[in-house]
Amino acid sequence: MKHRIILLAIAALAAFKAAAARPRLVVNIVVGSMRAEALGRYAGNYGEGGLRRLLDGGTVFADSRYDYQQTTTPVSLATTGAMPSTHGVIGARWRDYVENDAVELIAGRKGPGPYNLIAPTLAEALLQHEPGAKAVSVATEAMSAVIMAGHSGEAFWLDSARCGWETSPYYAPEVPEWVARSNRERYNLSYITPEWRTLYEKGRYLNTRNCDIVLTGKSRKDNDDPGEGRLKLTSDYDKMLYTPAGNTAVLGYLPFLLVVSLFTGALTGFVSALLLRAISHVKLSH
Predict the structure, then answer these.
(1) How far apart are CA 146 and CA 148, in angstroms?
(2) What is the pLDDT of residues 16-34, one digit of tens each?
(3) What percent of the chain has pLDDT over 70?
(4) pLDDT higher than 80, residue 149
(5) Which residues of 235-246 are buried (b: 16+ CB within 10 A; e: fewer)?
(6) Residue 123 CA neighbour count, 13 Å, CB half
(7) Beta bridge partners of 274
(8) Do residues 276 and 241 touch, judged by C-beta distance below 8 A?
(9) Residue 141 CB neighbours (<10 A)
């Protein structure tokens, strides 16, 4: 009995130490429009890292679900643990039937911000309970970045005019200098290429709705010959949003945010990133 008590005490001590260990960095990656079953369905084409590593070495919650019907982008991004009727994010826009006004979710006098978000997000909870922590949210468009960040921390998204990273006065008067320098160089435009080709042969894809992506120009020939997978996008911002370039820009921005979070004295770093859609196995073609 004595030996048993000692073993239980050792086990309890080990559990306490494991629970007390705090991670230096938490990365939250959200893939919009990607259903949960897609993880297993397309697993045959995964490489050794990436999603394969998460599936094999991580924890997979196979029976998780939203407890409400409307799982649109802003609603499902509110990491509050509350229902939409409680956290306030019920859509991108709606009609206030009391005042008879149209309500924009993130519109306000200080630029994009969580004006209608009521409950605290996961990032806010970390900043509240972990003094010295740092939370950053990044997405290709403002709504996703704002809803993931909440009322505190930092949020960045693509500027629709020049495709650089920007924030709003709600979070900060201006972007940090290292971000401004990248914007002046217009580095994000380097992710836009004329074509994206599938990585594998077409027969390896279970989803038959796959094709190469070819950006068309303004010539008459491009207008007359749309072709499979051709996209007529006139602005650089549209090219970032509707091709893999936007996801590449977000993923390219992440390492810099991770470095800043870890080496600026933050005790714990929390970085959220939204990828626009489930685009996989695509490579650049020059």
Answers:
(1) 5
(2) 445 557 777 888 888 887 8
(3) 81
(4) yes
(5) ebbebbbebbbb
(6) 26
(7) 30
(8) yes
(9) 18
Residue with tokens 């500027």: 159
**Are 140 and 246 in contact, with CB atoms under 8 Å apart?**
yes
DSSP-derived secondary structure letter, 278: -
Contact 274, 34 (CB under 8 A): no
The percent helix, strand, coil of the chain (3-state, each to 5) is 35, 15, 45
Is 113:171 a contact under the CB 8 Å cutoff?
yes
Q: Are 282 and 244 in contact (CB under 8 A)?
A: yes
Residue 25: what pLDDT? Answer: 80
Rounded to an integer, the average pLDDT of 166-190 is: 94
Burial class (CB in 10 A: 0-12, 13-18, 19+), 253: buried
Q: DSSP E strands: which ranges in 62-128?
A: 93-96, 101-104
Alpha-helical regions (H) of the chain = 2-20, 38-41, 50-57, 73-77, 84-87, 122-129, 142-149, 177-185, 220-224, 236-241, 245-262
Backbone torsions φ then ψ of 270, nearest 5 degrees = -125, 115
- pTM beyond 0.90: the answer is no
User: What is the secondary structure of 153-184 as a DSSP string?
Assistant: SEEEEE-TTT--EE--TTT-SS--HHHHHHHH
Q: How far is CA 70 from the centre of its chain?
A: 19
Q: How many CB atoms lie within 10 A of CB 84?
A: 22
Q: Which of 46-55, 116-125, 171-180, 251-260 has the lowest mean pLDDT?
A: 251-260
